[in-house]
Amino acid sequence: MAPLPIPLHQSGQYVGAIRLGRTGPGIHEPLYFLQGFFVISLNLASN
């Protein structure tokens, strides 16, 4: 059974959670979330 794809609105949280797990909680968590949105937007725009 294939894993379910991550919804677009959650992928930013997913990336943030991975980095948060590595670095611990901090002020940069919202930045990772926004970065996830930004990367997704660029990927959608380039397609």
Short description:
The protein has 47 residues and is mostly helical. The chain has helices spanning 8-23, 29-46.
List keywords for this structure.
47 residues, mainly alpha, single chain, flat, 2 helices
Q: Your description of this structure?
A:
The protein is mostly helical and 47 residues long. It has one domain (8-46). It is built from two helices and no strands. The chain has helices at 8-23, 29-46. It is flat and about 25 Å long. The model has no long low-confidence stretch (mean pLDDT 64).
Radius of gyration: 12 Å
Q: Considering DSSP H and I runs of 4 or more, what fraction of the residues is helical?
A: over 70%
First and last CA, distance: 28 Å
Strand segment count: 0
Structural class: mainly alpha
The overall pLDDT, averaged over residues, is 64
- Global outline: flat
Low-confidence stretches: none
Largest sheet: none
How many distinct helices?
2
* N-to-C SSE string, H for helix and E for strand: HH
Q: How many domain units? A: 1
Strand content: under 5%
